[in-house]
Design a protein that fits this description.
Elements lengths: L8 E3 L6 E3 L3 E5 L12 E5 H16 L2 H9 L13 E7 L4 E6 L7 E4 L4 E2 L2 H4 L4 E3 L6 H19 L1 H6 L2 H8 L4 H10 L3 E4 L13 H9 L3 E7 L4 E8 L2 E9 L15 E6 L2 E6 H8 L4 H4 L13
Helix pairs in contact: 1-4, 4-6
Length: about 300
């Protein structure tokens, strides 16, 4: 979709500003380090792109749990290297000797003794009690989902998203830095969210369980967009076969495409470096074959179910 405006300018969904094309850089809607690819990009404000890459994408990609999944999926990112997930604040043994623990997928863990400055042999490590700290930045999931909502929303819906969706609400969430900021954002706008690792709040009354399961059944990254009759756009984001979060923002549903490749909504996936796009109705049916007859898929689209 051509988004070039008069005067060689572009609209940035992250800032809401119209900028000279020279001030923009390509943003990976799903970062390479989280299973994205060069095919799924959109031009955004260069400085904001750099900031969010450091404060949001980089923080999430370097969490231990995410690094373990990156290793499982062999996701290299910009470095070109598969990460070696390591708990750097750890201990082992009855006396709690300081250590670092490296997770190696199906291979045995590697335990590095910080006092002796060496890796334990396999026989030494057998039977040792291991303890480590897992630091989770829960707010970064809020920011990441909001960021993907903005870039993917404009990528999928173009000018309809720019003029008929409350992207300002998503920016409030993209820019939070604490739970108090999050509470303030919830008070000031109609956007709502449900995020991995954050207890579901009483005000989240949307059943996004199917979308969560779709993220877990997809061998890669998933962006699901479903306009609702309630005037809200539900966006669900998954990376590396796991659900990260769901958000809603107000939208003028009547102005969005609702048929063809947008039948009931739209799904964008990145699997093994390739982008695939589906009508939401069909993607649900491909993942839940028992629902095919009830959903009455459009006959014009032929995509093989997963695993064939």
């Amino acid at each position: 979709m051509n988004r070039l405006l008069p005067g060689n300018q572009l609209w940035c969904p992250y800032t809401g500003s119209v900028l000279p094309i020279g001030n923009c850089s390509p943003e990976h809607i799903i970062p390479l380090a989280l299973g994205g690819c060069d095919e799924l990009t959109i031009p955004v404000d260069r400085s904001m792109n750099t900031l969010l890459g450091r404060k949001v994408d980089g923080v999430l990609a370097n969490e231990l749990g995410i690094q373990i999944r990156r290793r499982e999926f062999a996701v290299k990112g910009h470095s070109g290297k598969i990460p070696q997930p390591t708990a750097r604040v750890a201990s082992y043994g009855v006396d709690g000797r300081p250590a670092q623990i490296q997770f190696n997928g199906k291979n045995p863990l590697k335990v590095w003794d910080a006092r002796e400055r060496r890796v334990l042999g396999e026989q030494e490590a057998v039977g040792q009690s291991l303890r480590f700290q897992l630091h989770l930045n829960m707010i970064v999931r809020v920011r990441f989902v909001a960021k993907v909502l903005l870039s993917a929303g404009y990528s999928v819906y173009g000018e309809c998203f720019r003029h008929h969706a409350d992207h300002d609400a998503a920016r409030r969430f993209m820019n939070v830095s604490s739970f108090s900021d999050l509470e303030l954002a919830l008070d000031q706008c109609m956007a709502r969210g449900n995020w991995e690792l954050i207890p579901k709040q009483a005000w989240w009354d949307i059943d996004d369980s199917v979308n969560q399961e779709l993220c877990k059944r997809t061998e890669g990254a998933t962006i699901i967009m479903v306009p609702g009759d309630d005037g809200m756009l539900l966006v669900t984001v998954g990376i590396l076969g796991t659900w990260i979060g769901s958000m809603t923002i107000p939208v003028d549903v009547d102005e969005l495409p609702l048929d063809g490749e947008h039948d009931l909504g739209h799904v964008t996936t990145v699997i093994r470096g390739r982008v695939q796009r589906y009508p939401y109705r069909q993607y649900v049916a491909l993942s839940f074959p028992e629902e095919v007859d009830r959903l009455a898929l459009p006959a014009s689209i032929d995509i093989e179910p997963k695993g064939q």
